[in-house]
Specification:
The chain has 10 helices and 16 strands. The protein is an alpha/beta fold and about 400 residues long. It has 2 domains: about 170 residues, Rossmann fold (3-Layer(aba) Sandwich); about 160 residues, 2-Layer Sandwich (Dihydrodipicolinate Reductase, domain 2). The strands form 3 sheets. Strands 8-9-10-7-11-12-13-14 form an 8-stranded mixed β-sheet, covered by helices on one side. The chain has a 6-stranded parallel β-sheet with strand order 3-2-1-4-5-6, sandwiched between helices. α4 packs parallel to α5 and α8 packs across α10. It is globular. The model has no long low-confidence stretch (mean pLDDT about 95).
């Protein structure tokens, strides 16, 4: 029904394995024709591993007339430059989170995309997975009534993690931007836009190498930005949600999203995964884990490759490709990405100034159609949930 969208991937680091595999073999709407990277060796390795026909520089991808869509998997501090280059070259762009490292940069990118009539999509696309789409359906069908409040929490030792994943030492590497964005993305996909923010915060500690002995002589560093944020968010729907992102503790992740409603309580699983369980709690009844109502449950039926635990990364790219062909808005669009970034930056700004911050961006996200599945027989057989991405 739809002509494939000729696509290139820029950035061949850790997350590229699952993206390249899924874009090449899982989504029929995508024709993955090229990979590129700042240094060519990683791109050449990915091309050999996954059978990609062309290895190109970033400039060559921007200049290629046959490439319509660029998937940007570079570190966050490179997003603005890469996305701007591709938009100015007339390419649609999907980017890993976040749109940029500042709201001002993100707004400029949105303006360029609007002026040129181009699509700009952004992770996290876990909001299109089975877990969060099931939670959205539970809310939309009034299973817990009106949501009155909620809690969202995640912790890690982000300074220690930055010793191994060195890109975390740059702008956008603190816990709220690197991991907390999944929680903000989940909350706004379920509840809609945030209208007001109050917060407290703390910086990351000065970190001396302790994890990799080979780095023992390295100079200490500090991840930029607030690595701990505790905030109250007021949503347009009236819900009041307490958010805590703590990157100054240990790597024993305790994640929680709980939404309290007038009729019940909904507990949502890890928003960094596609298959977080959704638990419904009613008064005087045992908790009930809801069956998934949607596909893309993170069970990957393709041949195993590194980082398969990232599940169905790339589903947002495929959904945007269908939107391009149909001429409709994509769900994880630029307005969604801008709002997530504005909420994160608003938390940091409120913590620094002691004032209430009111985000100005707004967005709408339609849920996916239910009833389509991406695997069956306990994950051993492949089903096709791609039809849920079409409309």
């Amino acid at each position: 029904m739809y002509r494939k969208v000729r696509t290139a991937v820029v950035g061949c680091g850790m997350i590229s394995n699952i993206y390249i595999k899924n874009l090449k073999d899982l989504f029929s709407i995508i024709d993955l024709v090229a990979v590129g990277n700042r240094s060519m060796a990683p791109a050449e390795e990915k091309a050999r591993t996954y059978g990609i026909g062309r290895v190109m520089t970033v400039d060559e991808i921007a200049a290629a007339e046959d490439i319509e869509l660029v998937v940007n998997l570079t570190p966050a501090f490179s997003h603005y430059d890469v996305i701007r280059k591709m938009l100015l070259a007339g390419k649609h762009v999907w980017t890993e989170k976040t749109l940029a490292v500042t709201v001002e940069q993100a707004r400029e990118l949105v303006e360029i995309a609007n002026e040129k009539g181009l699509y700009l999509g952004v992770a996290p696309d876990t909001v299109l997975g089975a877990g969060l789409q099931t939670a959205r359906r539970a809310i939309d069908t009034d299973m817990i009534g009106a949501v009155t409040s909620g809690v969202a929490v995640v912790n890690r030792d982000q300074a220690l993690n930055s010793e191994y994943f060195t890109f975390l030492r740059g702008n956008g590497g603190c816990l709220p931007y690197d991991v907390g964005v999944y929680y903000i993305g989940a909350l706004v996909s379920l509840l809609g836009p945030v209208e007001a923010i109050r917060a407290f915060g703390a910086p990351a500690p000065l970190h001396e190498p302790q994890f990799l002995y080979a780095n023992a002589e390295a100079e200490p560093w500090r991840i930029p930005g607030a690595n701990v944020l505790s905030a109250s968010l007021r949503f347009e729907c009236g819900a009041l949600v307490s958010v805590l992102f703590d990157g100054n503790t240990v790597n024993a992740t305790q994640h929680d999203i709980t939404l309290f409603g007038t009729r019940g309580v909904l507990k949502v699983g890890d928003p960094n995964a596609f298959n977080g369980p959704v638990t419904l709690i009613y008064a005087d009844q045992p908790p009930c884990v809801l069956p998934f109502t949607h596909g893309y449950d993170g069970v990957n039926t393709l041949a195993p490759t590194p980082f398969d635990h990232y599940g169905h990364r790339g589903v947002g790219v495929a959904e945007m490709a269908y939107a391009i062909r149909a001429g409709r808005p994509n769900r994880c669009g630029k307005e969604y990405g801008l709002h997530c970034l504005e909420v994160l930056a608003g938390m940091e700004q409120s913590a620094a100034t002691g004032r209430t911050v009111e985000p100005v961006s707004r967005f709408k996200m339609r849920p996916l159609a239910p009833g389509y599945y991406s695997s069956f027989m306990g994950g051993t057989g492949r089903a096709d949930a791609e039809k849920s991405l079409v409309d």
